[in-house]
From TrEMBL:
Pfam families: Aminotran_5. Residues 132-153 are annotated as: Disordered. Residues 11-120 form the Aminotransferase class V domain. This is Aminotransferase class V domain-containing protein.
Length: 153
């Protein structure tokens, strides 16, 4: 009986954490397009795992963005999680019609603080701008693109 009660408590806690992570992820989804020019948030806003957000940036190499974010203290990935163990561009993202070379996937682990998300959002624009400058991208990219809705996973 005690094990069943413990399991119920753990499941309730996990459900609460999933709601919290979904809210933090939604904050990233909502703010990144306004902070970084030429970025597209990927995936359905409702039908997705809590704590995971993916976006594609024009004029950057995803791996370079990953390294720069790592230097700033953030561990992110590139490509879809379906191909995370390969070095080839994501066939999943290509099938969705999504830019795969400038792709960044943020996975928020349990316990991620709001302050961590806010710091990420403050660092990301500088990182992307710096990578674009190093790669010789256009000096003033177009303003953020507005879409009718995100592409489904």
């Amino acid at each position: 009986m005690a094990a069943a009660a413990s399991l119920r408590a753990v499941r309730a806690e996990a459900a609460e954490e999933a709601v919290r992570l979904r809210e933090l992820t939604e904050r990233i989804r909502a703010r990144v397009p306004g902070l970084v020019p030429d970025v597209e948030v990927v995936g359905d806003p409702g039908r997705r795992l809590p704590g995971i957000v993916t976006f594609s940036c024009l004029y950057v190499d995803g791996e370079t963005v990953l390294h720069e974010l790592d230097r700033a203290g953030f561990s992110v990935s590139s490509g879809s999680s379906c191909t995370s163990s390969t070095l080839t561009p994501s066939h999943v993202l290509r099938a969705m019609g999504v830019l795969s070379e400038g792709n960044v996937r943020v996975s928020l682990p349990p316990g991620t603080r709001e302050e961590d998300v806010e710091r990420f959002l403050s660092v990301l624009p500088e990182v992307v701008a710096g990578v674009r400058e190093k790669l010789g991208a256009p000096a003033s990219p177009s303003p953020p693109r507005r879409r009718a809705g995100p592409k489904p996973w």
